[in-house]
Automatic annotation (TrEMBL):
One of its GO terms (molecular function) is DNA binding. InterPro entries: HTH_HxlR, WH-like_DNA-bd_sf, WH_DNA-bd_sf. The keyword DNA-binding applies. It comes from Diplocloster agilis. Keywords: DNA-binding, Transcription, Transcription regulation. This is Winged helix-turn-helix transcriptional regulator. Residues 10-113 form the HTH hxlR-type domain. Pfam families: HxlR. It comes from the Bacteria.
Length: 117
């Protein structure tokens, strides 16, 4: 076994850091969770579901996730415009991580731990 020294390491070069760079942000994980749960979601539906997010923030966050190839945007050429969002295959590969976070949250809620005592 090789002993590692933290002074010789760099967090920025780890897979953890790369993953975090893609999902870090106030609403990115919420958007990914929403798409995981509901598969295909229109912009206004997502805005209503999330709640306190502004139109500008939702739009820019979706563009970032699309740029990172985690979210697919499908625009229909009609009036009024219709746009749907879904997870790409790359985005779907995050589902086990999101599921694990959901399970952890359910198992570790404050009210659950109070009733267990």
């Amino acid at each position: 076994m090789i002993d590692r020294c933290i002074s010789q390491e760099c967090l920025g070069t780890t897979g953890f850091s790369y993953t975090l760079s893609l999902i870090n942000g106030k609403y990115k994980m919420i958007i990914l969770y929403t798409l995981m749960e509901f598969k295909i979601v229109r912009f206004n539906e997502m805005k209503k579901y999330i709640g306190g997010i502004s139109y500008k923030t939702l739009s820019s966050t979706l563009k970032e996730l699309e740029s990172d190839k985690l979210v697919h945007r499908k625009e229909y050429p009609q009036i009024p415009p219709k746009v749907e969002y879904s997870l790409t295959e790359r985005g779907k590969s995050l589902i086990p991580i999101l599921d694990a976070m959901c399970e952890w949250g359910e198992n570790n809620r404050i009210e659950n731990s109070k009733t267990a005592k």
